[in-house]
Design brief:
There is one protein chain. The longest helix has 29 residues. The protein is α/β, with parallel strands linked by helices. Strand 1, helix 1 and strand 2 form a beta-alpha-beta unit. Helix content is 53%, strand content 13%. It has 15 helices and nine strands.
Amino acid sequence: MARTIGFVGTGLMGRGMARSLIRRGHALRIYNRTRAKAEEVAQLGGAVAATPAEAARGADVVVSMLADPKALADCFEGPHGVLSALRPGAVVVDSSTVSPPATQKLAAQVRAREAHLLDAPVFGSKNEAENGALGLIVGGDRAVFDSVQDVLSCLGKSTYMGPGGMGVTAKLVVNLVIASELEAFHEGMVMATKAGLDPDLMYSVLMNSRARSGIFEMKGPNILKRDFTSFFPLRLMDKDMRLTLETAKELGVAMPVVQAVKEVLGACMAAGQAEEDMSAAIKHLERVGGVEVGSRSRT
C-alpha cells in the first residue's frame, strides 16, 4: 500500500533513497536545502516542498538523511521544521549518522508530538541507495519497526538492533572498523611502494591472504587507478570518527586506532580534500613518504 512520505535531505545518499521509494509507488514530498537537488529527484515523481514542515505535513512517515547533528536540528526544530508539522502517530525514520545524544534528543522531541522515531542509519554506496540495496541498522520500538517494513524494504535490508540509539551506535561501530581497515591498507601500500614493491602485485597478495577485506576490494582498484571520485566524502568519515571518539569517551572506551585515523583525516581536511572520496586519505601518507601508490600499468 502506498504511503505519503516526507523526505528530508536529498544529498549523495538521500537522492537515491528517495528515488527508490518513488519507484515503489510511494507519494513523496521532498525537501532539500539546495532546492535544485530536490527538483532533480522530483523529476521521477513526487512534489518539492519549500520547507521541512511542508514535507512532513500530513505524512505517514518522514525519512531524513542529513549530514550531521547540526543539519538534523536545523531541519527538525523551529517554526518551519519537521516537528512543527509532525502529526500524531507518524513515524520518523532518521537515516542520518549522528551521535547517540543527538538521536536521544530527537526521540524526546518526536515523542512530545505523540509520534515515533526510528534511528536507521545505512551502510552501502550511492549506487546501492539508487538500487534499493542498502543495509539499514535500526534502533527504536520493535512494533514501530515492524509497522514500517513496507517503507524500509524499499531502501534495502534492515536489521533491528534494539531500543532507540542502538542503530546509530551500531553505525559508528561499522564506520570505525571500515576507517581503521582502510588506514591499515593505505599504510601498507605506501610502505610497499616506497620499498620498491609493485603495487599491483602487493594488492594481489593482500587480496589472496587473510588480510583480504571487502573495503580493500572496493577501494583498492580505484586507488591504483588514482581515481578518487567521491562515493563517501572524506569529510563525512572525518565527522563520523569525531562522533565515535565522543561516544567512546562517554562510554569509557579506549580508541587508540580511531584517534590515529582521526589525525590523518584531519590532516587531509586541512589539505583541502574534504570532498574527495574517503580513500583519498592515502594522499597524506604519500605526501609524508614522498611516494605515490598507483598501478604501473595505468596509462
